Fold this protein.
Amino acid sequence: MSPAAFAPMFERVALIGLGLIGSSLSHAMRRRGLAGHIVGHARSQATCDKALEIGLIEQAYGSAREAAVGADLIILCVPVGACDAIAAEIGPVLTPGAILTDVGSVKTAVALAVQPHVPAGVHFIPGHPIAGTEHSGPESGFAELFDGRWTILTPPSGTDAGAVAKLRAFWEACGSAVEIMTAEHHDMVLAITSHVPHLIAYNIVGTADDLQSVTQAEVIKFSAGGFRDFTRIAASDPVMWRDVFLNNKDAVLEMLARFNEDLSRLQRAIRWGDGPALEEFFTRTRAIRRGILQAGQDTAGGEFYRARAGKDGGEPGKSGQ
Ligand code: NAP
């Protein structure tokens, strides 16, 4: 599709946060000409300067509030724990008819934190692109990040249908498919598909690190035996993931309880030499992997975005969702 395939859908887009997701959104918008103007704000001057230098935004503002003035689409692309304070700051300058959204990996807590600051007439529609890499920062983004992936929108009941349709069309123009669900359902689904797997990766890498009898050299040398994939996930940004676990506590604890029960079952099968039980279980899980490949949500080599992300540079420290 040519870059000018879409007319601008929004006159002025304010990106609050200019890391992996904010910068990828800028590239995706520019690819299709979705925004008349893109402006932004990040916490540090260094990030603002870099975003201007590489053309992510036309203007950088010293505060989220200044960036949000006059915007008809405001996207919070900051760690989940920062959304409350930013919403309080920008709320008074948001104009009726504007759409306020976010990209946070947790939805119920963000909705509860942001909603009280949203003035009447402003459409607040939380969102979450299920796309990411283990890189972060303004240089890590790329236009194709959302292509063929899902974005989940969790509009509170009573949200203006036209605004939801417009935000859906925006994400579709960014390359994503869109699904709508409640914030609570989102948090439960993501707890098992993303949050608990990250916790397991953090834990297993930590356990290996603690083992006195296994040297660092051996961990690196023999990492291809499954451990390597965990280390990539466990290199994810500590602040982003701290916020995810603090803000999706109930769903994560519920999924962890189920996980522990199933792990105990496997433990028992190993202890009692129950080969058929192990084989039956592993056959079932293999089918899940096939389903993911068939749905186009990964490649057989598991290098879905990594080659591209690595080429673009960016700081290591994040992994998808
Ligand atoms: P990132 O690359 O670390 O970027 C975060 C950005 O937020 C940076 O520009 C940072 O500014 C800015 N920021 C942090 N605190 C701020 C504050 N208080 N005020 C203003 N700006 C602030 O993070 P990301 O990967 O883009 O993640 C952003 C959001 O997307 C998170 O909520 C995350 O849950 C969600 N998400 C992430 C992924 C993923 O795979 N990474 C996928 C889907 C959704 P400085 O650079 O100046 O510090």
Remarks:
- The chain has a mean pLDDT of 91.
- Residues 168 and 178 are 6 Å apart (CA to CA).
- Residues 16-22, 42-44, 47, 64, 77-80, 82, 86, 103-105, 128-129, 132, 136-137, 237, 240, 318-321 surround NAP (CB under 6 Å).
- The first helix runs from residue 20 to 32.
